Amino acid sequence: MIDRRGLFRSAAGAGVALAGVRIIPSAHADQAYPSYPVRWVVPYTAGGATDVLSRLICQRLSERLGQPFVVENKPGAGSNIGTQAVIAAPPDGHTLLLTSTANAINASFDPSLPFDFAKSIAPVAGVARIPLVLVVNNDLPAGSLAEFIAYAKPIQENSRSLLRASALRCTCPASCSRRWPASNSRMCPIAARRRA
User: Which residues pair with 73 in a beta bridge?
Assistant: First the structure.
């Protein structure tokens, strides 16, 4: 887990990286960047790790570059709402997106997205490394990844259940709606049904 010092180092590094990169088109090279306030779009809700990191980075960039960097939280649709807002903005470097791997995942699952993420967004800087962990219910007899795989393998081989880490599509909507009532029953986290 990232500690407070590591978070500040990540934010400072991102600020330096972003401040040193010229992200304005060459036609505007004679103008100072930024020439007006910058929108920093976070496609997640306020208060999470991405939001807090964004606010730290934006504070430093505002101080260093002399223009406000304003964090705008635009959550929804698995980060697609915020991403689409940035893609629709003028390509002048005054609208930035801080996102995660969610966009790559969204593009691989939904070819009907109204934008092509890879062609519409240019990466500027990596700003943080955030660990992801696999967790299970305490009642599941697995205390490590090896134990989880050993537990899940016989269940997967039994045709009465599904365990797919690659697609995240669930064929057990009744089970998903019981576990995650607010979720779309066709899309759910990785799920394994226990033997009856």
Answer: 42
DSSP 139-177: TSS-SSHHHHHHHHHHHHHSTT----TTT-B-S-HHHHH
Query: CATH number of the domain at 4-120, out of 3.40.190.150, 3.40.50.720, 3.30.830.10, 2.40.160.10?
Result: 3.40.190.150
Instruction: Please give the pLDDT value at position 99.
Output: 87
| Residues 149/192, Cβ–Cβ less than 8 Å | no
Q: Tell me whether residue 57 is exposed, middle or buried, using C-beta atoms within 10 angstroms of its C-beta: 0 to 12, 13 to 18, 19 or more.
A: buried
* Closest of 158, 99, 163 to residue 134, by C-alpha: 163
What SS3 state is found at 59? Answer: helix
pLDDT at 158: 57
Profile the chain (196 residues) by mean pLDDT over runs of 10 residues: 50 45 47 92 93 95 96 95 95 92 85 89 86 83 87 67 39 41 38 32
Q: Which pLDDT belongs to residue 129?
A: 81
Give domain limits for the chain: 4-120, 133-196
What's the whole-model pTM score?
0.59
Report which secondary-structure segment, H or E, holds 95: strand 95-97
Give every CB contact of residue 71 below 8 A, 6+ residues apart in sequence. Answer: 40, 42, 51, 54, 55, 58
